[in-house]
Amino acid sequence: FFQNPENIGYAYKVSESVTMNNQYLKYFIELGIFGGLIFMLLWIIVIYKCMFYRKDLGYWFVFVSVILFVHLFFDSLFSSITISSLFIMILSFLPSDYWKVSLDNRVIRILFLSIFIILICILYTINIQMYKESKLDKYERLAEMFLQYAKYDYSLYNSRQALAINPSSIQSKYCLGRALIGNSTLNPDSIQRKEDIKEGIELLNEINGKVYYRDYYLALSYGLLKVGQIDNSVKYAILVHEMFREQLRPILLLSIINYCSSNTPLGKMYLDECIQKSQDINKTNYNQIHNFSLKIKMMLDSQPENIDSIMNNQDILLSLDSIMIAH
Asked: Tell me: the pLDDT tens digits for 168-209?
């Protein structure tokens, strides 16, 4: 469904669904049938005892309990610190014939108050952490998805939002670095364009050795090529080519790099290999690479020095961005 670019706008709505909308189903899945039944039985006991044993509390306790019991069939409320605290408060008013503790002793009162405060703090911390993790996961997934559709500005926004939650997030830096390199072509300011690429390279270098994705090395090599660091660029392009011998993108990138470094014979060899392999594979998702390679070959066969004009042509660079970053 989301492979269709027309449906990409629905991604925001889907990303909000970080938990299933049924608390009982959640506990049945996580705790099994026995654990789920115990959770439901706990609510039934709460309602029963509020109705028949503590009439002095007023019927609003019964009302709140019933509302929560029914609502849990349609939502996962216990990720909220407010609902969790309300549930604990309701339980605290239930009668018990099994244990009685006198609170006349000051030490006992302080002890119970301390336990209550500690429990509230633990619940609050857990829920805040769960909330942050869910938001982080949402932004990271959106950043990656928009990147795949070459929506670099949206990817930039979501990556920065994710980094604001967790500045050390590897996935967020991975997405942001690639988005900055891809989005640089659309920046009309040449100085700012280079700064964006350098920032993207710095972010990717920060996570070097922590990720071993094909797209990571391709983006890093491509970014270095854009700022003219040919030696470093070819190092990462060769690395990713050795990791994925049958992949077309590393071969195409090696061809462009060698043309840029005036190594025309080697550049032509890689370009011909890319065209031949893409023709042999003959799959729809390789058509973009095949057509782009043929276009570049036509431009370079007669005049290899055209590589400079190619690397300054925005339309060609956008196509190359799409292949190397968003493919």
From this structure: 999 999 999 999 998 888 887 878 888 999 999 999 999 988
Question: Residue 99: which pLDDT band, with cuts at 50, 70 and 90?
Answer: very low
166-172 LR contacts (CB < 8 Å, sep 24+): 166/132, 166/136, 169/136, 169/140, 170/207, 170/210, 170/211, 171/140, 171/144, 172/136, 172/139, 172/140, 172/143
What pLDDT, on the 0 to 100 scale, is given for residue 104?
57
Count how many Cα atoms sit within 13 Å of the Cα of residue 313 in the half-sphere of its side chain.
11
pLDDT at 98 over 50: no
- Report the candidate in 183, 171, 168 with the shortest Cα–Cα distance to residue 216: 171
Task: Count the residues in the chain.
Answer: 327
Closest alpha carbon to 177 in 144, 209, 145 = 144
Is residue 76 classed as helix, strand or coil in its secondary structure?
coil
The angle at the Cα of 75, spanning 32 to 41, to the nearest 5 degrees, equals 45
- Could you count the other beta carbons within 10 Å of the beta carbon of residue 279? 12
Q: What is the mean pLDDT of the chain?
A: 79
Q: Count CB-CB contacts under 10 A for residue 109.
A: 12
CA–CA separation, 39 and 27 (whole Å): 8
CA-to-CA separations, 203 to 45, 168, 174, 187, in angstroms, rounded: 55, 11, 7, 19
Query: Per DSSP, what are the bridge partners of residue 211?
Result: 208
Q: Is the dihedral of CA 256, 262, 265, 266 positive or negative?
A: negative
